Amino acid sequence: MKIATYNVNGVNGRLPVLLRWLKEAKPDIACLQELKTSDEKFPEQSLKEIGYSSIWHGQKSWNGVAILTKDGYEVEEIEKGLPGDPEDVQSRYIEAKINGVIIACLYLPNGNPAPGSKFDYKMTWFKRLLTKAGRLIKLNLPVVLVGDYNVVPTEMDAHKPERWVNDAVFFPEPRAAFQKLLKQGWIDAIRELYPDQKMFTYWDYFGNAFKRDAGIRMDHFLLSPDLGKRLIAGGIDKHVRAWEKTSDHAPVWIEISGK
DNA sequence: ATGGCATCGTGTCGATGA
């Protein structure tokens, strides 16, 4: 089973790129972030026409997450919105059970400018995620905690770490929180497959960042321990970042053995 | 220290992102 994640940065503006990538990559499950659309304007029909069913948690203009599945899979929606703060109106979390696997699709707050209130929100959200992740891993079920974490875990995950030291994605606090997730037992799938390689999932639009390969790795697949044993392949669809009208992120995918 | 570039909305610029 192939599972992918893609921060589309506007699902309607990006629709041609999204459809082209789906037809090419053919993931069984695709988790999307930064839909930037209200629920009403989610392009359900266009995705249906190429064989994907969707569940989504949208929000006008900002944020938004979705889980797409190839027709034929049964999707049991579990939750929209991350628990822990009823006042939080931002759409950044959606969870479903598909084919016996719990898929938690998330878009962690960026947190810039840091320090400040947005950074505080990032860390509060991260603490709620740690609580949620701790509960999920205790279920002893196959779980995928996947999406745009807005965290560059280590220096190896940045082309030029110095460029990011004043950015919330590279601040010590979110990096420490990411390490806490790993300590819970989650496996960073891409790092597991490529322990020594610089692997990027995001490149700035400006300064020819993609051509210079001046990227960072912020989109992550965290796998529950049992799923980690079923990990057989994974990668980054870097070529998609070179397409016309493309997102600043590239899709990331993994292949899990079994049904 | 800043901007670079791109998205969305009801706009022709501001807010947001990273």
TrEMBL record:
The record marks H249 as: Interaction with DNA substrate. One of its GO terms (molecular function) is double-stranded DNA 3'-5' DNA exonuclease activity. It comes from Chitinophaga rupis. The active site is at Y107, D148 (proton donor/acceptor), H249 (proton acceptor). The record marks D219 as: Important for catalytic activity. The record marks N150 as: Transition state stabilizer. One of its GO terms (biological process) is DNA repair. The keyword Hydrolase applies. Probably binds two magnesium or manganese ions per subunit. Mg(2+) binds at N7, E34, D148, N150, D248, H249. Its cofactor is Mg(2+); Mn(2+). This is Exodeoxyribonuclease III. Belongs to the DNA repair enzymes AP/ExoA family. The keyword Plastid does not apply. Keywords: Hydrolase, Magnesium, Manganese, Metal-binding. Residues 4-249 form the Endonuclease/exonuclease/phosphatase domain. Pfam families: Exo_endo_phos.
